């Protein structure tokens, strides 16, 4: 079976399981007033990591939206991860928007204060989503690459990170508070 077929089957399987609540165990089904803001934020971070790993290897296509096709572009990837993680954490996220618009709804953060869900942004406004930390100095990012024609993960100890991302770094950014509001 070729890589595209595996990706299509994996995505369809994921969407079916997700729609039945099997993949992401909807914590949002609990009365939202019983979940503290800190707990919601923790659930949001955990779901980002779970969701990001599902998309690795999915084929890239400009304008691709994995909710309707088996391909995805970077802005759809990041917005879909935010949107689905938000639902599971009893938050609301405004849904898909082009990267330019998404970045207008972020705030720059100190590189020493980055956390899961933050974006690393290049001078040309390309961005990768930070989805996992292995240590204080090693974190993982997910990105839908036009050049590689797929969604891939890389980490902060990777040569590409040092040679390309840090060389062209605009900064690290976090969603503005108004982008994630309690669903109540």
Give a verbal description of the structure.
Helices cover 34% and strands 21% of the residues. The protein is of the alpha+beta class and 184 residues long. It has a single domain, classed as Alpha-Beta Complex (endopeptidase fold (from Nostoc punctiforme)). The strands form 2 sheets. A 6-stranded antiparallel β-sheet has the order 2-7-3-4-5-6. The chain has a two-stranded antiparallel ribbon with strand order 1-8. It is globular. The protein starts with a helix and ends with a strand.
Summed up:
The protein is of the alpha+beta class and 184 residues long.
CATH architecture: Alpha-Beta Complex
Major sheet characteristics:
6 strands, antiparallel
Chain-averaged pLDDT: 86
Strand order of the largest sheet: 2-7-3-4-5-6
By oligomeric state, this entry counts as single chain
Structural class: alpha+beta
Tell me the layout of helices and strands.
Layout: H1 3-19, H2 37-55, H3 74-88, E1 91-92, H4 99-103, E2 106-109, E3 119-122, E4 127-133, E5 139-145, E6 150-155, H5 159-165, E7 169-175, E8 181-182
Antiparallel strand pairs: 1-8, 2-7, 3-4, 3-7, 4-5, 5-6
Helix pairs in contact: 2-3
What would the keywords be for this entry?
single chain, 184 residues, alpha+beta, endopeptidase fold (from Nostoc punctiforme), six-stranded antiparallel beta sheet, 5 helices, 8 strands
């Amino acid at each position: 079976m070729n890589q595209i077929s595996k990706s299509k089957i994996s995505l369809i399987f994921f969407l079916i399981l997700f729609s039945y609540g099997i993949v992401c165990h909807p914590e949002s089904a609990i009365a939202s007033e019983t979940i503290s803001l800190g707990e919601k934020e923790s659930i949001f971070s955990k779901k980002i990591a779970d969701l990001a790993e599902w998309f690795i290897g999915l084929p890239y296509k400009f304008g691709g939206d994995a909710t309707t096709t088996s391909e995805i572009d970077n802005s759809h990837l990041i917005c879909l991860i935010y949107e689905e993680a938000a639902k599971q954490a009893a938050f609301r996220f405004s849904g898909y928007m082009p990267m330019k618009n998404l970045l207008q709804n972020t705030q720059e953060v100190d590189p020493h204060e980055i956390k899961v869900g933050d974006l690393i942004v290049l001078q040309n406004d390309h961005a990768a989503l930070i989805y996992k930390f292995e240590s204080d100095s090693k974190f993982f990012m997910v990105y839908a690459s036009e050049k590689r024609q797929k969604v891939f993960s890389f980490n902060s100890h990777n040569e590409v990170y040092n040679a390309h991302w840090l060389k062209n770094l605009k900064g690290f950014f976090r969603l503005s508070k108004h982008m994630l509001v309690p669903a109540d």
